[in-house]
Amino acid sequence: MIINLSGRIDSSNAAEVEQRITAEIGDYAGAIELNAAELEYLSSAGLRIILRVKKAHPDTKVTNCNSDVYEIFDMTGFTEMMDIAKAYRKLSVEGCEVIGEGANGIVYRTDPDTIVKVYKNPDSLDEIHNERELARKAFVMGIPTAIPYDVVQVGDLYGSVFELLNATSFAKLIQNGESVDDLARQSVEILKTMHATMLKDGELPSKRAEAIGWAKYCEAHLPSEIGTKLVRLFEEIPETHNMLHGDYHIKNIMQQNGENLLIDMDTLSMGHPVYELSQMYLAYLGFSETDHNDTMVFLGIDRATSEKFWNSSLKYYFEGKDEAFIEDAVVKARIIGYTRLLRRTIKRNPDNKAVIDNCTNQLCELVPKTDKLYY
Q1: How confident is the model at residue 305 (pLDDT cuts 50, 70, 90)?
Q2: If we measure between CA atoms, which residue out of 185, 183, 228, 238 comes closest to residue 207?
Q3: Cβ contacts of residue 306 below 8 Å, gap of 6+?
Q4: Which residues sit opposite 255 in a β-bridge?
Q5: Percentage of the residues of the chain whose pLDDT score is greater than 90
Q6: Which pLDDT score is estimated for 257?
């Protein structure tokens, strides 16, 4: 139940306000949201009203406080005993440059200093706060990342704001003629730093658990012997504690005054690096196998350039390994990638027969030749 508070609540009108709130609540026994968007001030008398509502309804929260009202709650300790949220600054992205888009959101440049990631889900506040905490965790562990400093409302959606002065994505740098090979080398430097970061049990979500779910979903859509072996191969991948980005590609790597930073940290997880390799394969080649123009749509570069970046990334990531080892690692990554893409396409776009058939055919060809999915 949402109850709107407005104006001033002090000793002169507290009794009247409390009677109104009590009448609105009536016999309702669920959670209460006190919307403070139009509340200008409340005294100790007003605070006592909220305390009594909170006591009767433990899930009570206060939302949309302006700065002055929030400070009253904060100074009196209310922010420590209940959920008190500030009002979100409203922001328009009309006419702003789109510098990236993923499954969860679209990233806009709102001015030369600032970008905002607008989440597609209108109920995304929990996701936004989760991504901020994940970015902070990665930053503390030595991963170069941008930490969001504000949450804004964009129409009916919400977004995270980042300060990225003069930042340019690797995709844009490639479009501007910078060396693909050199940018791939720089990309791998960050990737190796991330994968060398070891986490504790439960510190981040397990990618292995998620991936086994992909395989089990696809099992029913594949020939029996292929589906059964696929699930077994996924289950045999060991649980490791390497930090993974989960959406690692040239639109999520930014260069700012000579320093490289990662964005889009909401997909952070932990697991074997082969999962990261599989996602990268999809980003650079897999998504566009049935339509090569998709690389331009997704990354802003043509497929030939994307393939060159992928091959250079493999060269630097597996530096010192022979060609046979690298080819085998790519096969493992492709199997995991096709499994993920098959599941996603069946669930989201079941009429896309070209992608479904391609993933199915690739899995039917590769799975029988593969004994394990990790290196």
Answers
A1: very high
A2: 238
A3: 284, 285, 288, 295, 299
A4: 168, 260
A5: 84
A6: 85
The answer on pLDDT for 150 being more than 90 is: no
pTM, rounded to two decimals:
0.81
User: In what helix (H) or strand (E) does residue 97 lie, and over which residues does it extend?
Assistant: strand 97-101
- CB atoms under 10 Å from CB of 149, counted, come to 11
Q: Which of 265, 303, 266 has its CA nearest to residue 283?
A: 303
State residue 308's pLDDT score.
Answer: 98
Residue range 209-233, pLDDT digits in tens = 999 999 999 999 999 999 999 999 9
In sequence order, which residues have a C-beta less than 8 Å from that of residue 347 and are 6 or more positions away? 217
Would you tell me how many other CB atoms lie within 10 Å of the CB of residue 239? 12
Place of tokens 């999962």: 275
Cα angle for residues 314, 199, 186 (degrees, 5° grid): 30
Candidates 207, 167, 221, 215; CA nearest to 355 is 221
Answer whether 204's CB lies under 8 Å from 165's CB.
no
3-state secondary structure of 28: coil
Q: How many CB atoms lie within 10 A of CB 216?
A: 16
Beta carbons of 38 and 6 less than 8 angstroms apart: yes
The answer, yes or no, to whether residue 327 has pLDDT greater than 90, is yes
Nearest to 362 by CA among 338, 336, 330: 338
Q: What residues does 65 pair with on adjacent strands?
A: 86
Spatial separation of the C-alpha atoms in residues 133 and 62, rounded to whole Å? 22
**CA nearest to 101, candidates 351, 294, 261:** 294
- Strand bridging mode 253-256 / 168-169: antiparallel
**Nearest alpha-carbon partner for 273 in 174, 197, 365:** 197
| Residue among 291, 301, 299, 272 nearest 375 (CA) | 272
Alpha-carbon gap, residue 316 to 332, rounded angstroms? 18
pLDDT above 90 for 131: no
Average per-residue pLDDT for the chain:
94
